[in-house]
Each structure stands twice: as structure tokens, then as C-alpha cells.
Design a protein that fits this description.
Radius of gyration of chain B: 26 Å
Radius of gyration of chain A: 24 Å
Largest sheet of chain B: 8 strands, mixed
Number of helices of chain B: 25
Order of helices and strands of chain A: HHHHHHHHHHHHH
Shape of chain B: globular
Distance between the termini of chain A: 21 Å
Strand order of the largest sheet of chain B: 16-17-18-13-19-20-22-21
Largest sheet of chain A: none
Oligomer: heterodimer
Structural class of chain A: mainly alpha
Number of strands of chain A: 0
Shape of chain A: globular
Helix content of chain B: 25-40%
Strand content of chain B: 15-25%
Chain lengths: 308, 690
């Protein structure tokens, strides 16, 4: 209790802040963008992610092998000039497979992870803010979805989207991954709802939607950012599990998760099968973390890096 | 002279910190003699609590404590935790500010007190310890002590919990009781009770008391000697008479004049201390008060003055840390001239009564159902939070609602702010019934009525830059961006901040500045009515004065009608034109401020007035008090007849015939003089009013 008391009065900074240009006043969006731009993590994370995306899109066009091609001369070849990342036991070029898998995994991960977080934010915030019957119904649905195993739902639904593209898999993860986070958001919203600044906004005449958008979501943003970053990585890996059971992404299409799983059994003997897709996944997660940190610091003025 | 009980020498406390060490206490010296009542007064961050916790050895491990604390012939700072434990609780006891967190929720209070007895004396049997606990609870005035000893802390009210804390503190007949802001969280009527219990505890145990507070009024009534702390140092020490009547350090002089006094409030403006205490991380050389001091001279900015007695022949001189103490003590600089004489409030600025009201509230009621804990959550009672409140506020006038916490004053204003049809009664804004208007009209009507909240840091979104915070009501009204930006700059200047601060986030501001932001937001739409819910109660006194003065200026300049909710009567008298005293959801006395506070007629108003401390030891010690019994009854409880009769000092002295009237009939507000009073026996009321 004591250090707080002591620190509290030393905290605020007096005098004009040096970096703010006088005259033009920025609103929150402008200030968040400016803080983001000034953060090297944003640039490092952003460029890394951009490079990965570019690699996934443009890479296959510039490479002689396609992911489904088999080079029967070189089975299980280590990295070499013609096969930069080596080949697997069927002669597939790993470099081509990683690029193809990266594209699919990024799509599935981003759609699935971001959709889940967005649903959690919107549903949780409204359930918590509006309360009453709507809240009761949402909580009931959430509890129902939580007790039904998602795998079970997938098995039931699978016949309907068999053979469709991996977009469906992404949607599936988005629609089944929001429940737990939404309950966390809901309870945080309920605490925020009774705070004076939310009450003040209501007394100003803002409708519920505006209050949620302006005050609730930014105040739970730290949680949402972490959830999204973890969620994207989680979906990429979870997709693997589906593939193993014969759902999800099936050959000849490949995903990063699938490559990692296939390669993990020979990680020590033929490391190239495991390492290259693995490092690519680490690259995705690393860039997401940097971006998430930068975004959180920009939105939350009291978070770590801003505390001085 | 005998060795003092406690002797603090060169005590310094530093908290190491990444961004610079915090020098919380910087070389404090003082003595407390046996049985003395020593008061330490200071604003938040002055180091008053830290220095006392250092005595108890209760600072966090990272604190670096140097100096000497001699108690009973030993230096406490050299003792290990085990040895200190023998002294803590037995020789030195502490009463904390927040008794809810200081008591363990899972043990009964009797067990906790018994434990305090047994931990220092294992020879006491459990039964004996329990009997002692019950005795102690009785001493501190807990009714039905035998039964209440087996209750848990959450079953007690705040005041009762603080009594339990005092009982625990005196359990081992300590020689020193440290009371750290013991009454800050309590209502004035309860505060008066607790201070009496503390005095009684001191009489019974013969212990010395070290009372730490920010409230000069609390100190004035009780302390023998007073120490004033500022920026980690004692800047003035003397008998309470000396400090209050002949203050020598300019900070003390300013502090005393920035506090409204309930007897004189409202006749002149409060003195404000410009600026704020320095950051304890990077203290400039020289006197830490120099930047705020109107007497500062060159030497003040170079050398920090020591706490020494001024060398004045003949005159009573007590130590003060000021380079110009000699001049002040000798009278070469008259004390009233230290801070520029405040202008009296021009009477022309006060709008005469009788002007047509812009906000009218008629017979407002708000009842909450009390739900049972069972599966069906059936209603098991009703909380009558607001039960028939009527008042009217005219432009340029301020109506104050005062009362203890739980009396319904905040619920009343929140009900008004909803701008919907109340459960019962009417709310009219400029003649428009808010219950009879549509959605769009209501939204535009919100521009006319705005609110300022008690806790400024909770009332602004921490994720919004203050420019956006202030522009929010304008955004809600659909004002264009350029116009919003222009208005934000204007408003920041109006409340005494800089227009360039708009891009900063709320956490970069101090408490007083944040409240100014709250006021700026309240004024953004040029409202006709501003509702203020305890706007200064969370602020330090020297900052409080600045906000009060600002509000007075705004009221006069903008012709605002203000509804001011407060529990501090002196502040209400300073700022309000009319007042309504609330008790359990009703206004029990209402009228012009001078009439109600000048000649209070309702026994509750009288009790509130007499409980409000006055920062003047001469008055405080001679005036008679009406101390109310017990706590505010729960608003869920149904009291037949007059609601106040359970605590009424007048009721107790009435004959049975007169009492039966109170028992049967709930009194209505009846005109008496210029005020209206809800009491059957106004003319019989001869209670002494302090």
C-alpha cells in the first residue's frame, strides 16, 4: 500500500510535453497512430509480417517447384541448390510446401483468430453492458456451446463442407473459439459499466453502441490484443489436429501445422523437414507479438513502455 | 526534563525506483512525551503516513530507512522483525484509515481482539482473553458487546469497525497509539464519535496518541502539539495554539486560510496556494515550498531552511522551517499579508432569491427493491433511497444537498441526470417535464444539464486524451470537429489549464487538474444546470480552495444553476445559496444557507453543524457538541413516524406526550423563519448549537 501512496504524487508530469506540436489538436485516433509510428516494435513486427505475407503470395510464382510436384530423383534430400529447404520422402520440395502452407495457415489463422476475438469483443461487451434478458440469453448460449465439444460439431457439419476450400475451416475456428474470451470481456464490461466515465457518457446522451465503441472496447483492448495474437497462433496449430483426424486441410493442400507435424517425427534425423516450417511459424508468432505489444502501448497510455 | 516516550531523529525514508528514487521522508525530528496527543498534519504525499509506518517497521522491504527512532531507550530501527513484533501491538499500537481491510474477514472481531491480547501474553487463557475482548468492545462503545463480539467485520458499519480497531489497539495498554487518518473515510457525525472514543482510549490507557490527518479541524480539537509536514519534512512544530494562532511557516499560514470555516464561510474567497507540492523524485535545491510561496527570496531557492525556533525576543516562538521566520514571528511581516487578502464575494454577484427556477424537482422518489438471496430472488423489502425530495434552482444560484453518506443525496442527482420519468414525482427543466418528452428532445435537453463527478480519475476514460474527454458532450450533440477543437481550447483556458494540454492523457494530471478537466467537460455544451457530486471531497485542502473559487467564478460569469452535493458543511456554506439537509431520503430542513446554517432548527442539522470540526483550537475546545448516537439506520428499515427519532437528541428529552407525536406522524416541511423544517417540536428545541 505504501509505495503507491508515495509514487502517486511523483507520477504526473508537469510542463508541456515536448513532442506535441502546438496548434493542431489530434483526437485519439491520430494520437494512437502517432504513438504507433514512433514505436520500433511496430515497424519490426509489421515489416516481418509483411515480408511473410509477400513471400506466401509472390514466392510460389518465382519458384520452379509447386507444392504438389514430386522430384523422384531426390527423395529425402537435405537442403541443396535445387531444393533450398530439401525434400521429403515423396520428393516434395519443402521450400514450395512451406510457401504454400504459409499462405493457407496465414489465411486460416487470421480469419479464424481475428473473427473469434471480434465476436468475443462484440458479444461480450454487449452482454455485459446491456445486461438483463439479452445477457441471460447470451450466457446461456455460451454455456451450451462450451459443453458441446467443438470437435463433435465439426464431425456433424463436416459432410456439408467437405471439399470446400480452407476458408470454411477458418470460419469454423472463428465461430467456435470466441466463447471463453467473451465471458472474460463480459465480466470486465460489467465492472466498467458502473464506472463514472461510462455513466458520464450515458448522461451525455450516447446510445449503448457508441458507449461500447468509445469506452468499453478501448478499455479491454489489452486483453483483446493478447487474445488475438494468441488466437491466430492457436488456430494455426489447432488446424493440424483436425488434419490428423482427416478433417481440415487435406493433401495435396498443405498447411504449416501439417508440415510441422509430419516433420516432427524425424526432427533429429532429418531436421530440415521440421525446422523450416517451424521457424516460419515462429516468425509469424514473433511478428504478431511485436505488433500486439506496439498496439497495446499505443492504445493504453498507462501500459509498461509509457510508464517512464 | 524526562526522556520523551518517542524520539525521532533524522528519519529519512527513500523508495528506490527505476525512474529516480522517491525521497518520501527527508530528515524528520520530533519527540512525543508520555500521554501527549501529537497531531501530524499534511497533504497527501507529504510523508506523514510513511514516517509513522517507519516507527512501526511496517514499510515495504525495498524502503531505505535511515536515522534513529528511540522508543523506551531502544533504537527501533536497529531491532529485528522478531524484536519489533514484541513492541508492535503491545507498546505501540496502530489504527489504520480503512478498518475494513485492517480486519480479517474470516474471524469474528472478538477472536481478533482476543488474539491481540494472547499474542503478547500467552498466560492469558482463551476465556479470559475473550472476556477482555468483550470488555474492550464495551469501552469503545459497541452496544451489546457480548453478542457483537462473535460477529464478523462485514457485519459492522464503518464507524463501528473503527471502534473495533481502537479496541484492538488498546488491548495491551500501549504507551503509544498511532492513528493514521482514522476518520477520513467516515461521516462527520461518526468522526466526532470516533475522536471521542480515541480520547477516551487515551484517558484509560494513559497512552500518547500520534494522530495523522489532513484535516486541520480534527487536529485543532484534540492535539496538544502539532507538526506540519510538507514534501517529506516537518516545516513547523508547536503547541496547537501556536500553530493555529501564530503560524510562522508560510505554508501553514496558507493552509489555514485555504480551509473554509463553517462559522465564517461564504463571506470571503478562500486563499489558494498556487501550484502543487514538488515531485519527491527530483527536488530542486532550496525550500521545497519556494515556488508556491509569496515571500520567497533569493536564498529560499538556494538553501533549504532548517527547522529552528526564530530568534525573537519576548514573543512566543516555536520552530518553523523558513528563512523569513524571524520576520513573520516578530510581526515585521503581518500574517494576513503573506497571502494576498482575498476579495470579499461581491453581493451583487449573488442572484437574489425568488428568481424563477431553471430546474425544478417535485416530490421525487426512488425506491429499490431489496431482493432475497434465494433461487427466485423474491423482493423482501424496499430501500427508500429517495423518498419525496423537492427543490428548485434558479440561474446563478447554487442549491446544496448535504447529509451523511447513505442519505440519498447522490441517488437524487443521478435520478435527475437520467432525464426520464422518475418512479414518482416530476423533474422539470425550464418548465419541460422530462418524463413527457421523446428520445430526440431528451438528447438535446442533455446539453442543458451536465454533471461533475466526485472522483475525477474515475469519471474520465483513461484511454482518451483529455481533449477528447472534454469534447465528448459536444460530440454527443453532433457538434462539428473544428468547432469542438476550438471549444476545447477555450474550456481548458477557462478552468485554468493550458490549451496545449489537450493531447495528454488523464493519468498525466494531478487530482486537482483532473477535477478541472471534469468541470471543463461539464461546461462544454454551455449547460444551464451543472450538477456537482462531491466535487472536492477527494482533493487536498490547498487544491480544494482553487476548485471552490473556480466554481464561484463560473457561477457568477456564466449564470449557471448548480446543484452541489457534499457532506462538508463548511464548503457548502462557502459556495451555496440554498441548502437542503437530507436524512434517509428526505429533506428535513431547507432554505437559504444563512438561515439554515445561522439558526439551524432541526435537531439533525444542529448535530451535523456541531460535529463539523472548526480549524481553530480555541473555538473547538470550548464549544459544546451534540454527538449523535449510533449510525444512520439502514434505508431499508421502516421507521414509523419521524425517521430521525431513533437518533434524535431532542426526542430523548421530550415528555411522553410529545414523543408520541414523533412516533406516529412523519413530520412535513413547515415554514419556520425563512426556512422550512420537518420537525414537530421546533419551538421546544433548546439544544445548544455550536
Amino acid at each position: 500500500m505504501m509505495p503507491e501512496l508515495v509514487l502517486a504524487q511523483g507520477e504526473p508530469v508537469e510542463g508541456p510535453t515536448p513532442e506535441t506540436p502546438k496548434g493542431r489538436r489530434g483526437s485519439r485516433a491520430a494520437i494512437v497512430w502517432r504513438t504507433l509510428r514512433a514505436n520500433p516494435r511496430f515497424w519490426v513486427g509489421g515489416s516481418l509480417l509483411a515480408l511473410l505475407i509477400l513471400w506466401a503470395i509472390a514466392g510460389p510464382r518465382l519458384w520452379q517447384w509447386r507444392s504438389s510436384d514430386q522430384d523422384t530423383h531426390w527423395l529425402l534430400a537435405p537442403p541443396m541448390p535445387g531444393h533450398w529447404f530439401g525434400t521429403d520422402e515423396l520428393g516434395h520440395d519443402v521450400y514450395a510446401q512451406v510457401m504454400s502452407g504459409l499462405g493457407i495457415s496465414l489465411t486460416v489463422g487470421f480469419i479464424g483468430g481475428l473473427l473469434a476475438t471480434a465476436l468475443a469483443a462484440v458479444i461480450g461487451a454487449f452482454a455485459g453492458y446491456v445486461g438483463g434478458a439479452g445477457d441471460a440469453v447470451i450466457t446461456w448460449i455460451v454455456n451450451l456451446l462450451l459443453v458441446i465439444p467443438t470437435f463433435f460439431i465439426l464431425i456433424i457439419c463436416y459432410p456439408f463442407f467437405r471439399g470446400e476450400s480452407y476458408w470454411i475451416i477458418a470460419l469454423f475456428f472463428g465461430l467456435t473459439g470466441w466463447m471463453i474470451t467473451s465471458q472474460v470481456i463480459r465480466s470486465q464490461t460489467r465492472a466498467l459499466r458502473n464506472r463514472d466515465f461510462v455513466r458520464a457518457a450515458r448522461f451525455m446522451g450516447f446510445p449503448p453502441f457508441s458507449v461500447v465503441r468509445r469506452h468499453i472496447i478501448p478499455n479491454v483492448a489489452s486483453l483483446l490484443i493478447v487474445d488475438a495474437a494468441l488466437g491466430i497462433g492457436g488456430v494455426i496449430l489447432a488446424e493440424t489436429t483436425l488434419s490428423i483426424f482427416g478433417f481440415g486441410i487435406q493433401p495435396p493442400a498443405v498447411s504449416l501445422g501439417g508440415l510441422i507435424f509430419d516433420g516432427s517425427s524425424s526432427a533429429t534425423t532429418r531436421p530440415w523437414l521440421f525446422m523450416f516450417p517451424g521457424f516460419t511459424l515462429v516468425g509469424i508468432l514473433f511478428s504478431l507479438n511485436l505488433l500486439g505489444d506496439a498496439l497495446r502501448d499505443a492504445i493504453d497510455p498507462t501500459s509498461g513502455a509509457n510508464r517512464g | 526534563m524526562a526522556e520523551p516516550l518517542l524520539s525521532v531523529r533524522d528519519l529519512s525514508v527513500t523508495f528506490p525506483n527505476r525512474s529516480g528514487d522517491v525521497l518520501a521522508v527527508r530528515g524528520v525530528n520530533y519527540d512525543i512525551s508520555e500521554g501527549e496527543f501529537f497531531g501530524i498534519v499534511g497533504e497527501s504525499g507529504s510523508g506523514k503516513s510513511v514516517s509513522s509506518l517507519a516507527i512501526m517497521g511496517l514499510l515495504p522491504d525495498n524502503a531505505m530507512v535511515t536515522g534513529e527512532i528511540r522508543f523506551g531507550g531502544r533504537n527501533l530501527l536497529e531491532l529485528g522483525d522478531r524484536e519489533l513484533s514484541h513492541i508492535r501491538g503491545r507498546d505501540i499500537a496502530i489504527v489504520f484509515q480503512d478498518p475494513l481491510s485492517a480486519l480479517t474477514p474470516v474471524y469474528t472481531v472478538g477472536d481478533q481482539i482476543a488474539e491481540a491480547v494472547r499474542i503478547h501474553d500467552r498466560s492469558v487463557t482463551r476465556q479470559a482473553a475473550h472476556a477482555r475482548a468483550v470488555d474492550l468492545l464495551r469501552i469503545v462503545g459497541i452496544p451489546d458487546a457480548q453478542r457483537r463480539a462473535s460477529a464478523f467485520s462485514h457485519e459492522f458499519s464503518g464507524g463501528m469497525r473503527q471502534r473495533v480497531m481502537i479496541a484492538m489497539a488498546i488491548a495491551n495498554n500501549p504507551r503509544l497509539i498511532i492513528a493514521d487518518e482514522p476518520t477520513t473515510a467516515l461521516d462527520v457525525t461518526i468522526q466526532a464519535q470516533i475522536l471521542e472514543v480515541l480520547e477516551k482510549a487515551r484517558e484509560i490507557t494513559g497512552a500518547a496518541v500520534s494522530l495523522i490527518t489532513h484535516d486541520l479541524g480534527v487536529i485543532a480539537g484534540h492535539a496538544d502539539r502539532v507538526g506540519v509536514m510538507y514534501a517529506g519534512k516537518l516545516v513547523e512544530v508547536g503547541s496547537s495554539h501556536e500553530v493555529f494562532h501564530a503560524p510562522t511557516m508560510p505554508y501553514t499560514i496558507g493552509l489555514l486560510r485555504s480551509v473554509p470555516n463553517i462559522r465564517t464561510a461564504g463571506t470571503q474567497r478562500l486563499v489558494t496556494l498556487a501550484g502543487r507540492p514538488p515531485s519527491l523524485r527530483a527536488l530542486p535545491p532550496g525550500c521545497p515550498f519556494a515556488d508556491r510561496c509569496p515571500l520567497a527570496i533569493a536564498v529560499c531557492r538556494e538553501v533549504e531552511p532548517a527547522l529552528v525556533s526564530p530568534s525573537v525576543v519576548g514573543a512566543a516562538a516555536h520552530p518553523a522551517a523558513c528563512h523569513r521566520a524571524d520576520e513573520i514571528a516578530s510581526g515585521a511581516i503581518p500574517r494576513p499579508d503573506v497571502f494576498p487578502v482575498a476579495d470579499p464575494i461581491p453581493s451583487a454577484a449573488r442572484v437574489p432569491p425568488g428568481t424563477k427556477g431553471v430546474l425544478t424537482v417535485r416530490d421525487l422518489k426512488r425506491h429499490f427493491p431489496l431482493l432475497g438471496g434465494g433461487f427466485l430472488r423474491r423482493p423482501i423489502g424496499t430501500v427508500r433511497a429517495v423518498d419525496g425530495v423537492s427543490f428548485e434552482v434558479a440561474p446563478g444560484r447554487t442549491f446544496a444537498l448535504v447529509g451523511e453518506s447513505g442519505c440519498g443525496k447522490t441517488t437524487t442527482v443521478l435520478e435527475i441526470m437520467e432525464l426520464t420519468k422518475p418512479q414518482e414525482g416530476e423533474i422539470l427543466i425550464e418548465g419541460t417535464d422530462v418524463g413527457a418528452i421523446g428520445h430526440l428532445e431528451r438528447r438535446s435537453l442533455r446539453a442543458d444539464i451536465q454533471m461533475v463527478f466526485q472522483d475525477a480519475s474515475a469519471a474520465v476514460d483513461p484511454r482518451l486524451p483529455v481533449g477528447d474527454v472534454i469534447a465528448e458532450p459536444l460530440l454527443a450533440q453532433g457538434v462539428a470537429r473544428t468547432e469542438r477543437n476550438r471549444r476545447v481550447a477555450e474550456l481548458l483556458e477557462l478552468v485554468g489549464l493550458e490549451a496545449g494540454m489537450a493531447e495528454r492523457y488523464p493519468h498525466e494530471f494531478s487530482g486537482g487538474q483532473r477535477q478541472r478537466i471534469g468541470i471543463a467537460r461539464g461546461l462544454a455544451t454551455r449547460p444551464k444546470i451543472l450538477i456537482l457530486d462531491e466535487p472536492v471531497s477527494a482533493l487536498d485542502v490547498s487544491v480544494q480552495a482553487g476548485i471552490i473559487n473556480l466554481l464561484e467564478d463560473l457561477k457568477a460569469d456564466l449564470g449557471l444553476a448548480m446543484v452541489f452535493v457534499a457532506h462538508d458543511l463548511a464548503i457548502v456554506r462557502q459556495i451555496a445559496d440554498d441548502v437542503g439537509v437530507m436524512y434517509l431520503g428526505r429533506i428535513i430542513e431547507q432554505g437559504p444557507i444563512a438561515e439554515v446554517f445561522g439558526t439551524p432548527r432541526h435537531p439533525y442539522t444542529q448535530a451535523l453543524m456541531s460535529a463539523a470540526p472548526i480549524p481553530d483550537p480555541a473555538i473547538e475546545r470550548t464549544r459544546e457538541r451534540i454527538v449523535l448516537d449510533g449510525d444512520l439506520p439502514s434505508p431499508a428499515q421502516r421507521i414509523e413516524g419521524c425517521r430521525f427519532r431513533t437518533r434524535c437528541p431532542l426526542y430523548r428529552v421530550l415528555d411522553p406526550d410529545a414523543r408520541s407525536l414523533c412516533d406516529r406522524i412523519d413530520p412535513e416541511l413547515e415554514p419556520h423563519g425563512d426556512a422550512r423544517v420537518a420537525c414537530h417540536h421546533v419551538e421546544r428545541n433548546s439544544l445548544v448549537v455550536a
